[in-house]
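Researcher: Let's do a round of design. I'm pasting the structure tokens now; please hold your answer until I've finished.
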């Protein structure tokens, strides 16, 4: 599956955004008040925008934080959608609400690509438009099943399975996958020695 560079960046951004939700956090990262929210304040929203090089971010406030959390929840619904039609409906509503305005642009050393958000869009509309269109690309390609949640029992992070044969089961083979493989190996060894 050939994915353009800007679409891949938007997919990475939407996955990271969905994984900031408290319900996406593994239990081992819980706080005394429950699972931690990766967007627990405006400072965390600024950090997210900086980490993902989101252009045109001006002053952010609590209203922006609430709007981004709402967009995050709607993206989580796309990952949980039972079929492409449901996923498409969710993406259509999200992108339409963002006031999508496709524009070709080249900036910051990147070749020509499409921005789907209006020039002065809020950060929530920026994310809804660009990331929504990246998810639309996956759905149009007939690859909605690539939008997954980690199968590790104590995880549940979102990820996009870009493996050739769509066989990825864990958000990270180095953490969740390796941990479960080691646990299975130890269980087999224990059973064999009993």
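Researcher: That's everything. Go ahead.
Model: Designed sequence:
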């Amino acid at each position: 599956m050939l994915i353009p560079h800007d679409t891949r960046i938007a997919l990475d951004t939407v996955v990271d955004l969905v994984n900031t939700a408290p319900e996406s956090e593994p239990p081992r990262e819980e706080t005394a008040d429950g699972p931690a929210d990766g967007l627990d304040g405006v400072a965390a929203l600024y950090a997210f925008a900086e980490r993902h090089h989101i252009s045109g971010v001006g002053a952010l406030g609590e209203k922006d934080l609430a709007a981004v959390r709402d967009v995050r929840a709607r993206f989580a619904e796309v990952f949980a959608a039972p079929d492409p039609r449901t996923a498409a409906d969710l993406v259509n509503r999200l992108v339409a609400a963002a006031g999508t305005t496709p524009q070709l642009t080249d900036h910051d050393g990147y070749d020509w690509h499409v921005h789907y958000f209006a020039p002065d869009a809020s950060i929530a509309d920026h994310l809804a438009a660009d990331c929504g269109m990246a998810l639309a690309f996956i759905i149009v390609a007939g690859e909605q099943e690539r939008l997954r949640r980690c199968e590790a029992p104590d995880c549940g992070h979102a990820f996009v399975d870009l493996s050739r044969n769509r066989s990825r089961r864990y958000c990270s083979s180095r953490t969740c996958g390796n941990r479960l493989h080691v646990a299975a190996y130890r269980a087999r060894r224990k059973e064999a020695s009993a």
